[in-house]
Each structure stands twice: as C-alpha cells, then as structure tokens.
Design goal:
This protein has about 270 residues and is α/β, with parallel strands linked by helices. A six-stranded mixed sheet has the order 3-2-1-4-5-6. A three-stranded antiparallel sheet has the order 7-8-9, with helices on both faces. Strand 8 and strand 9 form a beta hairpin. It is globular, with a radius of gyration of 17 Å. Helix 1 packs across helix 7, helix 5 crosses helix 6 and helix 7 packs across helix 8. Helix content is about 40%, strand content about 20%. The protein has a single domain, classed as 3-Layer(aba) Sandwich (UDP-N-acetylmuramoyl-L-alanine:D-glutamate ligase).
Amino acid sequence: MKKALTIAGSDSGGGAGIQADLKTFAAHGVFGMSVITAITAQNSLGVLAVQDIRPDIIAKQIEAIFADMGTDAVKVGMVSQPETIRTIAEGLRKYAAPLVVIDPVMVSKSGYHLLQPEAETVLIQELLPLADVVTPNIPEAEAIVKRAIHTLTDMEEAARAIHAMGAKNVLLKGGHREEDATDILFDGRSCQRLTAARVPTKNTHGTGCTLSSAIAANLAKGLTVAAAVVEAKRYITVAIEHALSIGKGVGPTHHFYELYQKAGFVNE
C-alpha cells in the first residue's frame, strides 16, 4: 500500500487539518501518517485557541516516520512559527522527502491568523523551494506576491511569480472569486485553467486541506502532477456537493461520500 505523510495542525472539530488529511488519504486508499505541528481548539464556528508543538518534538515525529516507515508523498499544512518551518524544511531535506505538496495555510475561514506574519518570509524562503506542488488560495497568494489578485490574468501572473520563488508547480485556487471556481495550474511552462461550477453551500470547512491532501495521495499512487490535480479537484467538488451540516457554523466536506454511496449507506 502506498503511504502519505501529513505535517499539519490538529483540528478538534475534525473538518480540517490533520483530521481532514488522514480522512482524505484513507478515501484514496493510501495509508496515512502524521506529524502534528500545532493543536487548535476549533469547531464549525471558528478557532478558539492554538498551542504550537515544540520544534524538537516536530523533528522527532519526522525522524520517527522516515527512519522506519518512509513515505511516498508529503503534504505540509499549518506551520505557524518560523522555527517550526525551519525544522520541517530541515527534516524534508535530510530525508530527501519525495513529492512534497505545500498548502500555505495562513488564515482560517473564520479569520483567525494561523501563520504568524514574521513566518511568511521564512515559509517562502525555506518551504517553497521544496514544493513539487504549492496550493495557495487567492488571499495566500496575495500575501506571497505582495499584490492584489482580481482576474484570471492576475492569477496566472501570480502563479508564475510563485513558481519563480522555487515551487515546481503552482496550483492557485480561485474559490475566493465570485465566478465559477477556476483554479490556475502553472508547471513552469504553461498555465492550465481548471474550472468547476460553484457549489451553493456554506459548508466548506477544510476544503484547502482536503484538496492538497488529495493531490498528495494521488501523487503517492503514481499520477502525474497534472493528473493528480485534476483528480483532486474532482474529488473535492464531490465532497463539497455533499458537504455535511455539522455544527452551528461552517460544516465540513464529505470525505467519504463516494465510498459511502458504493456501500449503500449515504447520509445526505
């Protein structure tokens, strides 16, 4: 069985972070492992508090995985402190981690700043050059390239700028625009526009985590970057279409909808 490692924060509400990543890996038939970078007190209404894990414990978690089990792909999510980022980058370089997907999580849907401002520069310098795929949304891309993004042309220019910072492939997600959900995939040569109809639901908690984890799982299974991204977008679209109304706020996507449907016990 193929293996995938998520390096990210824990979401006590189960819809995003480590929990979403492991569910996504499982839904793709990939064995999931985790390195927890932070613990969040979080539910459908927002993030109440964050406790970062000590860098030495993060380093030991990385060592534990690579020294024994290894992995076929790595997804990196919430990394809030500069020293955390440096520790992860050092570990990925030390163990020559394959197929790294970076999801530059900066702000939660409820507006909680998960990445400290002083850590943004460190993330750009340390993690982007290690990324086989980086998956910023528009606000995250704006923070990285330091300019506003409004149009698809703006998105393409930003994707090229982020690629120039070292990432091999850039998937700039367009969910924050009002039109159809068009993402831009730039592979260093050309831009591909990936469009899906916007799903009318408020229940989109963990979509970014889920998409990046689906990409990592598909890469672990041997798909090319382009194929992994297309399949991941299809998967997250279905998961959003059948999102769950759990909690009083923004509910999670349905990571196992297709499996539940095949088993005959889908709960809408």
